[in-house]
Design brief:
The complex is a heterodimer of chains A (293) and B (397).
Chain A lengths: L1 H15 L3 H8 L5 H29 L4 H9 L1 H20 L4 H18 L1 H16 L7 E4 L2 E8 L3 E5 L5 E5 L2 H4 L2 E3 L9 E7 L5 H14 L10 E7 L2 E8 L7 H18 L22
Chain B lengths: L3 H20 L6 H13 L4 H20 L6 E6 L5 H10 L8 E4 L12 H19 L6 E5 L14 H12 L3 E8 H11 L8 E3 L5 H13 L5 E3 L10 H15 L4 H10 L1 E5 L19 H7 E5 L12 H13 L4 H8 L3 H13 L3 E4 L2 E4 L4 H10 L9
Helix pairs in contact in B: 3-4, 8-9, 13-14
Classes of the chains: A alpha+beta (293), B alpha/beta (397).
Chain lengths: 293, 397
Amino acid sequence: MLLCQATLAHSALLMQSNKPSEFAKRWLAEINFSTVLSAVIAIGIAYGLLLAIDNFTDWISERVPRRFRLLTKQGLPFLRAFVLLVSIVYVSNLFLNLSARNLFALTGTLAVALGFAFKDYVSSIIAGVVGLYEVPYRVGDRVRIGETYGEITDYGLRRVQIRTPSDSLVSVPHSKIWTEPIINANSGDLEAQVVTNFYFSHAVDVAQTRQILCQTAYSSKYTRLDLPVVVIAQERPWGTQFKLKAYPMDARDEFLYQTDLIQRAKQYFADHAFEYPQSGYLQGPEGGAAVGE
Amino acid sequence: MIWPFEQFQAWLSKQRAKVTEKDELDPLPPAIAAHIDQKLQEASVNPTCRHHLLSTLEDYLDTWQTDKPSANSLTVLHSPAEPFAPLLQQSLQSWPEAKNYVLHVLPLEERPQQTSSITQALETARSQFLTELGLETASDRPLIIVIPRLDIYFLRCIGGWQAIEQLRDMITADLSRFWLIGCNSWAWKYLNIVCQIEAYLEQTAHLPRLEGEQLQNWLQPLLKTLDTQVHLAEGRSQSDTSREEKATALYEDLANISHGISGVAARLWRTSLRYQLGSTKSESETDPDSLPPEATVAEILAAGSLKQQRARYPEMPDLSAAEDYLIYAILLHGSITVPHLALSLGELEVQVRAQVQKLLRQEVLHNQDGILTVEPAYYPKLQDRLRQNNFVIGGDR
């Protein structure tokens, strides 16, 4: 720390002194037309590469078999980070003398400057880099961060983009991983358990209802048949709640899957006059629609 | 210096030219196509499959009658692309041992039309055959009840496999009858998940995977009825020079790409047959239009020649995820009508009908009298595609 402060102080002295050429000589490399052109070309190539990587990853991930889709998408942040890192190092090296001493001083200066001016921004970037290794979420995962739930569609330098069930895109800064719990439904796998709630009156035949709900899941075209289907019943003051837990073949179909389950089940229950709870009792956090969540 | 990309482009052009050259051969003229289709229809049952089916049945019947009366059923599993019902019917008709048994085939041939009352209709069918069985129990000969297609007894909907559960309980309740059941392997796997059918009907057998020689013995005689020399394409190996070697190589290829499934092999073999005009006459006489529409098979063959190419898959159209679900539902049920398909998919019939129309145009599906099936030539590729996309599919062997 002391060394850092000393270096910073020394740099400041250099800047204040009447020897700008000495400062420039120490920090800046020789800048000419060729250097500027190289930098512009490097930035152009990096930009083009980033666009190409984004588009190619999107294109290929929608064409490979479903089981490889997430695997394909999950390489995207690493490729992006690699291109950015190489470009930044290359361009910095064109304009700056990046000796060990200078690098040390520069880091200190940047740390102080960014620490005051762009604290949150830098925090998000660092969290994004940490996230690459800790992997609390990946592209294609279905996560809940704070109040936001949906599929991660993009992993940027500073933020992730989440597509919500209402098809809105929400940007969430990576820095949330410092403070918020991250609830990840599938953690890189294609399968994510979907829980669908059904509500009935206390008089319902629990065994029969469980059987019907199991059949509901097994008859849905979306169900991953080789994974377990479970029905859990819970007693509530207003009636009996059933949770149908099953896996769709593709986590992306989560909401279509729930809709299909509810549609099939409601049709059957209507045909066979199953009794729902009286609406007056359905208040509070567990209330809402008679069927579904 | 030639850049690798240019080299690649040159290679690609060469390959494309080869394919184009192959495709320049005409498809079979209608008269010859009709002749071959008719012969194929007459010989639709593969003798190897028939022999295997009957020998397996006899083995299991011996076990049932002597050692283990509790094992009173045999389920023969087959690919959804295999025409099993005609195979079973013809096999039983030609079975020398049939006279020692009373054979009773369950009357249900297709799922009932009214989707809302499918289980009731199945129950009616069950009552009917129980009545008929009651009349025949006085016979001294052992009774074999035949269900050619178990897959038509269920539909993927709530309560859709109730009839399967009823049949399952009937089979295990009365050990004095033997049940011979045919079921497509995809439906069997599904039924095993939803109602654990294999725990009750544990005796299963698969149809054999046909080898090249078996396919050759089955299909090659059909061409001899045309009374012409069929030119054979070169095999993969340049060393296959004689006609026999070329034929062996062609049928081994056919066995490989058809996965040894007779229904698939027949379709791929049929599409591998091409017609070439003018191989025996001068160039001026090789205009396809020069053949009159009413030309007989002999006249057409005199004007050109038949060529058997290496069998290959038809080009698969781009399929969406929704079409994957639809095709899986058809393969799961073996064959199905549009209203049943809509019920199984949980979608509106009008939407399903539109998707079906598109697939019919692309010739991925067939529609015969309102019953949809998947074109067998696409089956191996569809099977791979659906497996890769996490669908639970049955093994063909």
